[in-house]
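Final report, closing paragraph on structural work. Over the funding period we assembled a curated collection of sequence-structure pairs, and we close with a single example.
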Amino acid sequence: MQRRSLLGLFTLTAGLVLLNTPARADDLYNTILSRKAIRVAVPTDYPPYGSVGTDMTPRGYDIDMATLIGKKLGVKVELIPVTAPNRIAYLQTNKADITISSLGKTAERAKVVDFSIAYAPFFDAVFGTKKVKATSFAELSGKTVSVTRGSTQDQELEQMAPGAIIKRFEDNNSTLSAFLAGQVQMFATGTTVAAALQKMNPSLDMELKVILANAPCYVAMPKGESTLLAKINMIIREARTDGTIDKFSQTWLGAPAGPLPD
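Its predicted structure, as stored:
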């Protein structure tokens, strides 16, 4: 009897352990299909990759990419607005399934999320007024530069221009607004974002000062989701081949995407 009691206790304990064990990795793809919806974290403050139109509907390169992925997977797309500081955190806290938010790939980020192949081109640079001389990283020393906290531009500035006075903001609108309001002499962002800003403000005194990096955009997802990663890579690769990616780029960036890295 004692042996049977112990065996029963062991069986019960094992069952409880199984019930409390987190779902194994690589289940997200099937979860998305069962849910018939994919939750996509996207920017709404970073044109032309993501912004809100006059009808309050999200629009931009990243939104078109999210729509394409949903269509190819045969599921509804639920867009979740995020900012640069929280776009990875939304994956880690299961608030989103994937992030399509002009996200560059770095070694640090790759420790906590997996990346698809690149889906969009993106150049990082520092912009400022024509009155401020800054044509090299050395000449950024002592000058104020606004940047969005947690962005690739933030990391690049810290590494390449340690002498710059970096003013960090929580979202892209605040980063740009600081420059427009004269709170900083320069700002760091993508060249396409700067072009959109100039287009909206034709008389704006602004020019490119220093190129930081060519940092293409990637789709990010929780680590270990190999099936979902393979499906999204297949979708992006097909879109590169059939001209869809070039069409997105032409529409939102004014030029074809050209060759993109894996």
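The longest strand covers residues 113-120. The two ends are 63 Å apart (CA to CA). We thank the funder for supporting this effort.
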